[in-house]
Write a structure and sequence with these properties.
mainly beta, about 5% helix, about 35% strand, disordered N terminus, disulfide bond, signal, ADAMTS_ADAMTS-like
């Protein structure tokens, strides 16, 4: 990997450049046997057949010979070349007299997939040379695409050369990571999607072997945002199950395509680093072919994959300074059971929410009609259960300078009166760009600002108390009667225009009586008594 340095948004502009993705600086080791041009290898090939099924075989003899003569029966020459994943069995026959036609044919065998977690067959062949010294050194050998797909060319891990270990890979080895084709006796032969030599079966755009393309729908559109800032910009989200994926730049730029998953983990060109890609990338259960075609100082980039994807992926653009705009076409197919006329466009990320420390980028995804590419109500995407892109992600800027941290004020020690006090935590700390915090010496903060207070007065209001008004006149002019007065809960004395409070604010046990008996003397005059 090579690091591309980008300018920050507020810094002076500088041009970042796109690195080549070809391996022009990877050379064939001087001690290696020379590579053979694949076209020459095919010309030298003798007549042969591939067995299709039953008694049906297909001649691949370019000489156009008609089969004649007394040929004997086909007999296996050796066992299947592989135990799983699609091997090849060689069969031969003898001519009893004068014959024309092929004496060799190849039959597909053990076409079932290998168990999950099995080592790639070509990688396994390269690794068998880990114990073979080259010029006195031992290496960990990995597959490398040389001139001839069916020669065993391998490259040491972290080295810039490759070596041809064998003129032919084992029969049944994939020619590359994209097609179904396999190597047979040093020549790349077409293989049907059913895993059989001679088969004409092909995957349709939906990824169905022998299908007619009726089980999926194609989604296509353009990303042509203007005035983009340097950095990553999401282009489109590819849903799980997507097939026949093609993403391509329509004009040459110094920008780069990137691939990430739903957790913002990059599989290609993440963290402002451009990867040197020399073979298909295994991502989300499929192989992505990453191609870059030079055009002067710029290049056209393209991503192609058959699918289906085993997880949601987002295709992003790593936009660099010096480019005015972008023009990217995308196309993919989704199964009809996942088909929806609506998808989310991710939207642009905002600037980081902070200027130092760890903050967040936010964005507002919006729903579009896949037919018109026009924006529609978000409810349409929600009703269709379309996965909505993340709306927030962390961002890191620079470490913050030391500053005072102030905690929340604690509860006041008194609810009223003249002695209420509350406290809080105050200390000097630094916040770093990864979000971590560290307490530092107070002197580091005093250069920036005075230390905030750690205590303050609170609830210094007069406590509520019962206040009683004057007694009323006796309710009767003679005899037993009652006197009444108002008793209210107030924050201050009545004479100081205290604020009336609810009765529950004062102590009920201390409430003065609000009525009492009174007697202004006996009543004079006749007194009537009723009897039985």
């Amino acid at each position: 990997m090579r690091l591309l340095w980008f300018i920050a948004a507020l810094c002076a502009t500088a041009l970042a450049f796109k690195l080549p993705y070809s391996n022009n600086d990877v050379h064939l080791h001087p001690l290696s046997p020379s590579e053979v041009d694949p076209s020459a290898a095919r010309v030298k090939r003798q007549a042969y057949q591939v067995h299709v099924a039953g008694d049906v075989s297909v001649s691949v003899d370019k000489g156009g010979q008609t089969e004649t003569g007394a040929w004997g029966a086909w007999n296996p020459e050796k066992e299947c070349s592989r135990t799983c994943g699609g091997g090849v069995q060689v069969e031969k026959r003898q001519c009893n007299g004068e014959c024309t036609g092929a004496s060799v044919r190849y039959v597909s065998c053990n076409i079932d997939d290998c168990p999950e977690g099995s080592v790639d067959f070509r990688s396994e062949q390269c690794s068998q040379h880990n114990d073979s010294p080259l010029d006195g050194n031992y290496y960990k050998w990995l597959p490398y695409p040389g001139k001839n797909k069916c020669e065993l060319t391998c490259k040491p891990d972290s080295q810039r050369f490759y070596y041809k270990w064998a003129d032919k890979v084992v029969d049944g080895t994939k020619c590359d990571g994209i097609s179904n084709d396999i190597c047979v006796d040093g020549v790349c032969l077409p293989l049907g999607c059913d895993g059989k030599l001679g088969s004409q079966e092909k995957n349709d755009k939906c990824g169905v072997c022998g299908g007619d393309g009726s089980t999926c729908k194609t989604v296509e559109g353009f990303f042509d945002e203007r005035s983009l800032s340097p950095g990553y910009h999401d282009i489109i989200m590819l849903p799980e199950g997507a097939t026949s994926i093609k993403i391509e730049e329509m004009r040459p730029t110094t920008n780069s395509l990137a691939i990430k998953n739903g957790s913002d983990h990059f599989y290609l060109n993440g963290n402002y680093q451009i990867q040197v890609v020399d073979k298909p990338l295994s991502i989300a259960g499929t192989q992505f072919e990453y191609d870059s075609r030079k055009a002067g100082q710029d290049s056209y980039e393209k991503l192609v994959a058959k699918g289906p994807l085993t997880e949601d992926l987002t295709i992003a653009l790593l936009f660099q300074t010096g480019n005015k705009n972008s023009a990217i076409r995308y196309e993919f197919s989704v199964p009809l059971e996942q088909d929806t006329p609506y998808i989310y466009k991710p939207g642009e990320w905002s600037e980081c929410s902070v200027t130092c420390g760890e903050g967040v980028h936010t964005r507002t995804p919006y729903c579009i009609d896949t037919a018109t590419q026009g924006r529609v109500e978000d409810e349409l995407c929600e009703e269709a259960n379309v996965t909505k892109p993340e709306t927030e992600k962390k961002c890191q800027t620079v470490d913050c300078e030391a500053e005072w941290f102030t905690g929340d004020w604690e509860t006041c020690s008194q609810s009223c009166g003249n002695e209420g006090t509350q406290y809080r935590t105050v200390y000097c700390h630094r916040v770093f760009k990864d979000g971590s915090r560290k307490t530092v010496d107070d002197e580091d903060c005093k250069e920036v600002a005075e230390r905030p207070p750690v205590q303050q007065s609170c609830n210094r209001d007069a406590c509520p108390e019962w206040q009683a008004g004057p007694w009323s006149a006796c309710s009767e002019k003679c005899g037993d009667a009652k006197q009444y007065r108002s008793v209210t809960c107030r924050s201050e004395k009545e004479g100081e225009e205290g604020k009336m409070l609810g009765a529950d604010q004062c102590n009920a046990e201390e409430k003065p009586e609000d009525q009492r008996g009174c007697n202004l003397g006996p009543c004079e005059g006749l007194k009537f008594v009723t009897g039985e």
